[in-house]
Design brief:
- The protein is α/β, with parallel strands linked by helices.
- The protein has 13 helices and twelve strands.
- The chain has a seven-stranded mixed β-sheet, with helices on both faces.
- The longest helix has 32 residues.
- This is DegT/DnrJ/EryC1/StrS aminotransferase family protein.
């Protein structure tokens, strides 16, 4: 085991520049650390980067999903269509907003929702579709939006993995209805925690802006700054979902680096593809045939347990013993007890998602990862499988 005694290599690690750290320190020294001028600058930077009309920074992508779904003012029994291959927050926020999640299986050769199966799931109770751009690979949006327009449905893109991704030469966030980004530490850019809603709908933007800070008609910066007024009105019940300037201080330096981050992620993903192409133990992610640029948030192949001679849990444990971190993204959401018991979902309902769920493994992938780091991962896997 001596060949694998180096430092632990996690599956993900944020890349933080000295300039970003200095910006956080400057924010702390300014005495203004909650929502303020840096958040506003970050929102403007998001609009400039994506080409989107409205940007609203928030405490998390979960907050963004909740507020955009809450703006639909769902009534009991109304439905929102989404994918079973997603983090639980996608379904959780549908339920919290008052809707019923209706699931559609994923593509045969991919991890995204099968757009060709969505229409069969639409009923008179359907209000919206929430496609998930899994691992930063865009869903096939042209037919999805055509379907949504034909049925009068809202589209809220769960783009937690997809900032910087492109669909047919257009950046996610630049077009369509509404997109929700995540800036969690393992995402393509980070603000520590955080997220943002991008939308082309001015009314929805106003709803989210109001609801993210208690339903007040002005945020703290507007009340406590030199030109502000201490008075405010509560226009509607709201939440505490605002982003802080301390977070935006990171984002202001992360966003200009995003394209370089994606270039490096792409190099690493292609290097994995090259080295693992002939390994029977892996089924590599398939690329959609339509024009797109993936953000490569994850490199998540499927373990062929028969060829590997072990199940996923043993593989991950063996990699950890060799100081290599891996992760699971994700267990198919309909198999969690809450969704299974409340909505009657069962094993076998979405066989494609279930097959992925049982076999998927996220391998280390982050911009600061070196070729030598990746060679360690590949060597560790070769050792694991040789000893099976």
């Amino acid at each position: 085991m001596s060949d694998f005694e180096g430092d632990f290599l996690p599956f993900s690690r944020p890349t933080l520049s000295e300039e970003a750290i200095a910006e956080v320190v400057a924010c702390l020294r300014s005495g203004w650390i909650t929502t303020g001028p840096r958040v506003k600058r970050f929102e403007e930077a998001l609009k400039a980067y994506t080409g989107g009309a409205f940007a609203l920074a928030l405490s998390s992508a979960t907050a963004g999903l909740h507020l955009t779904l809450a703006a639909l003012r769902l009534v009991p029994g109304e439905e929102v269509i989404t994918s079973p291959m997603t983090f639980a927050a996608t379904l959780n926020t549908i339920v919290i907003a008052g809707g019923r999640p209706v699931l559609v299986d994923v593509e045969r050769d991919g991890y995204n929702i099968d757009v060709g199966r969505i229409e069969a799931a639409i009923t008179p109770r359907t209000r919206a579709i929430v496609p998930v751009h899994f691992a930063g690979v865009p869903v096939d949006l042209d037919p999805l939006y055509a379907l949504a327009h034909r049925h009068g449905l809202r589209v809220i893109e769960d783009a937690a993995h997809a900032i910087g991704a492109e669909y047919k030469d257009r950046r996610i966030g630049a077009f369509g209805d509404t997109q929700v980004f995540s800036f969690h530490p393992n995402k393509n850019i980070t603000t520590g925690e955080g997220g943002a809603v991008m939308t082309s709908d001015e009314g929805l933007a106003a709803d989210v802006a109001l609801a993210r800070f208690h339903g007040m008609d002005r945020e703290a910066w507007n009340r406590f700054g030199k030109q502000g007024s201490a008075h405010y009105e509560i226009i509607a019940p709201g939440f505490k979902y605002n982003m802080m300037d301390m977070q935006a201080a990171l984002g202001l330096h992360q966003l200009p680096a995003l394209d370089d981050f994606i270039r490096r992620r792409t190099e690493l993903a292609e290097r994995y593809r090259k080295h693992l192409a002939d390994w029977p133990q892996w089924e590599l992610p398939a690329a959609p045939r339509y024009d797109h640029r993936p953000a490569w948030h994850l490199f998540a192949p499927l373990l062929n347990v028969e060829a590997a001679g072990m199940d996923r849990e043993r593989f991950m444990a063996e990699m950890k013993a060799r100081n290599i971190g891996t992760a699971i993204h994700y267990r198919a959401a309909h198999l969690y007890p809450y969704y299974r018991d409340r909505y009657g979902y069962r094993l076998g309902d979405f066989p494609r998602a279930e097959r992925i769920s049982e076999r998927i493994v996220s391998l280390p992938l982050f911009p600061a990862m070196t070729d030598a780091d990746q060679d360690r991962v590949i060597a560790a896997m070769a050792d694991v499988f040789a000893r099976a």
